[in-house]
Amino acid sequence: MLIRRAVGRNLYERSDMAIVARFANDALPLTRAERAARPAIITNGGLALRELIAAARDAVLAANEPPSLFRVGNQIVRLARIEDRVVQEPMSKEMMLARIMRAANWMKVFQGVLVGSKPPAEIAPDYVANVDPRLPELRRVAVVPLLRRDGTLLYEEGYDASSGIYFARPPDLILPTIPEKPTQADVDGALNLVREQLLVDFPFAAPSDWTHALALLITPFIRLCVDGPTPLFAIVAPCPGSGKGLLADIVHLIFDGTTCPVSTISTDESEMRKKLTAMLIKGFAVILLDNVNAVDSAQIAAAVTAVRWSDRLLGKSRLLDLPNQTVWMLTGNNPTLSMELARRSVRIRIASSSERPWERNGFTHADLRSWVRANRPKLVGAILVLIQNWIAIGRPMGSTTMGSFEHWSQTVGGILGAARVEGFLDDRHEFYAAADPETDEWRAFVADWRERRIGKVRARDLLDRAIENDLVPDAIGNGNIQAQLARFSKALKRQVGRLIDGYRICSEMDPHTKVALYWVEEVAP
Question: So where are the chain's domains?
């Protein structure tokens, strides 16, 4: 059956209205050929709304070639080009409506003639709320080659369906040839470039700190093949101007070509969660929490270890479900981290070699950021050589593991081990001890307790001894005796079941007095 169709001022007849569409940029006007290549969807042709929704989804999917519309978690994003960069943007209902309108020729029958129409208003909100699982998954918009889960480096530009990576190489990033089987000379050359040129002027406090800086440079390149989270890299120094922010910046300059996205820490946990969600929506590969003094944030601790991040979309009732594939960094002047954050962190210490380090001169590169920009292809190539060297010898896993970050520590440890770099995670126990002075207080308290060899006692009896010998002062406080007892009892209850120096703190309720009794018992190794 032939249908008369009105297009502009011309009338012509057409019977094939279901031609597979090709992708056109949302910002460009459609040509006549592009309009003709899209399927026609007649809004008043007797189709139910669910059928119109299905037709719109099929049309959008057909027009998404090559793909520029993706799913990230339970939201839809599109790729947009800003100058020479490709970035991802969340799709609003209005943006989705524009895409749906361009994916098909929306028509209605008017006086026996097909004329232009609009899609029903319900279609775009339905599309945004119910993400089409057929859309390709986007895990990262990359501007450098990345390690895929199959153990290969991705060099081909465009969307790689097997890894979910969209590789958009900048025109100015002409990489050197990476040998399939790097020689020891190739590996040594890569390490020398990092050690003698890139990081030469950073006064690291110990060899392990240099190793951890190298691990930080490598981590964004291998992040997507790590099963689970990666730790928080804490770049610390004793005073301002030591180069903490500069180190964070060059990590991001090498990986992304831009300075690092920065956020400050809010003491309001609700506000902090909103900040974290906003950055994860943007898909940042690396995030810096800058100029930190003291951190005891459950939200940051959760973000570092979360594989997926759930939060309510700001101003909406809709719950977002986002993959958390970010590398987290923190800078601060000897910041105080809670034990929860310290155990999630890898420390990079920069020592201060002068009273006013910001007045130092005589650097190998007077403007390190400019040098990194000019030499970025060689620096990216050096990191890829280290990764390819590990791939070539069979991807051996490192033997040192870090709790909650086992796969990351084994992967990065394997890459460093293959390059004969030592010191990985050597200082973590020292870092934990510095972040947990409370444990030292309780260790002294338990030592005194077990030396007296007393049986089951009340919290009040233990409080008297603690006050007499100045033990666990933070758990006691400075109030009157009743306030001190209440505070001490709460602190003591939190220690029940904890193992300290081979002794476990135990408790039970006295059935007669209904008062809690405490004792310590030795635990066999």
Answer: 3-138, 203-432, 436-522
Decide: 236 and 333 in contact? Cβ < 8 Å: yes
Distance between CA atoms of residues 421 and 413, nearest Å: 9
Query: How far, in Å, CA of 287 to CA of 134, rounded?
Result: 30
Topology given in CATH for the domain delimited by 203-432: Rossmann fold (3.40.50)
Residue numbers of the chain with a pLDDT score lower than 50: 1-25
> Measured between alpha carbons, how far apart are the two ends of the chain, in Å?
86
- Residues 457, 461: Cα–Cα separation, whole Å: 6
* pLDDT for 343: 83
Write the DSSP symbol of residue 341.
H
In the block, tokens 């997926």 appear at 308
Q: Per residue, what are the HEC states of 133-198?
A: CCCCECCEEECCCCECCCCCECCCCEEECCCCEEECCCCCCCCCCCCCCCCHHHHHHHHHHHHHHH
Judge contact between 328 and 287, C-beta under 8 A.
Answer: yes
Q: Token pair of 306, please? A: 């979360």
Query: What's the CA angle centered on 513, arms 509 and 516, to 5 degrees?
Result: 30
CB-facing half-sphere around the CA of 308: CA atoms within 13 A: 8
d(CA 154, CA 169): 11
User: Residue 384's pLDDT is what?
Assistant: 97
Helix, strand, coil percentages in the chain from 3-state DSSP, rounded to 5: 40, 20, 40
